[in-house]
Amino acid sequence: QVQLVESGGGLVQAGGSLRVSCAASGIAFSRGAMDWYRQAPGKQRELVATITSGNSTNYADSVQGRFTISRDNAKNTVYMQMNSLKPEDTAVYYCHARRAWIDYWGQGTQVTVSS
After folding, report:
1. CA–CA separation, 49 and 36 (whole Å)
2. How open is the CA angle 25-81-57, to the nearest 5 degrees?
3. Which residues pair with 11 in a beta bridge?
4. Cα–Cα distance, 85 to 65 (Å, whole number)
5. Angle 74-77-82 (CA atoms, 0-180°, nearest 5)?
């Protein structure tokens, strides 16, 4: 069965950095895109970054220039390096994959940025 497991969240001061990871199993990892979403309390879940099977990337305007998504197909893992973090980046960050018309989600990892 498909499993996405995030890790790397935590508490960091504004201006600091954090790297979140998502380990995938049970899917054809290298054949499709991987995404990072986030959701703050009381707000809609939003797409933060995506990386395609060809390693092209896209970012939300709010994180452009600060976040970098990458993938290691040999490890079936997608990463997101988050630099220059701001309090408004505080959210639960979710790993996402869509395969054969089915959406798969990780459990989420909490990122808290203090001012």
Report:
1. 5
2. 75
3. 112
4. 11
5. 130
Q: Are strands 10-13 and 109-114 parallel, antiparallel or unpaired?
A: parallel
For residue 6, give both structure tokens. Answer: 């995030």
DSSP 21-82: EEEEESS-GGGS-EEEEEE-TTS--EEEEEE-TT--EEE-TTTTTTEEEEEEGGGTEEEEEE
Confidence tier at 37 by pLDDT (50, 70, 90): very high
Express each pLDDT in 59-90 by its tens digit.
Answer: 999 999 999 999 999 999 999 999 999 999 99
Mean pLDDT throughout 37-56? 97
Q: Name every residue whose Cβ is closer than 8 Å to that of residue 114 and which is 6 or more positions away in sequence.
A: 11, 12, 13, 14, 87
Burial class (CB in 10 A: 0-12, 13-18, 19+), 49: buried
